[in-house]
Amino acid sequence: MFQCKQFAASLMERMTAQGMKGEMVTLQSQTRYIWSNTFNRTITETGEHVGVKVGNTMYDNLYPQGIEYSKWLMDLEVGSPVLPPTITPFNIIL
């Protein structure tokens, strides 16, 4: 837990080195916590969680094997009010 930014940065670096593209997806909570229903615990103490989206599949430190984007969103609760995810495309042509 609590290693999402490092996981996402490493994955994006490997992907861009291979000429792949995707999107960095950031969830934010106005509280300091984001809850995972699957793991039945909080996954952040900063109010931010980051993953990498390729097509309709999300990859993060919780789901390194990937999970469908809609299931990922349903699993993670950001509290109220629900803020929309921030999506940042990335692709670096080498």
UniProtKB/TrEMBL annotation:
Pfam families: Tox-PL-2. Residues 2-76 form the Tox-PL-2 domain. This is Tox-PL-2 domain-containing protein. It comes from Chryseobacterium indologenes (Flavobacterium indologenes).
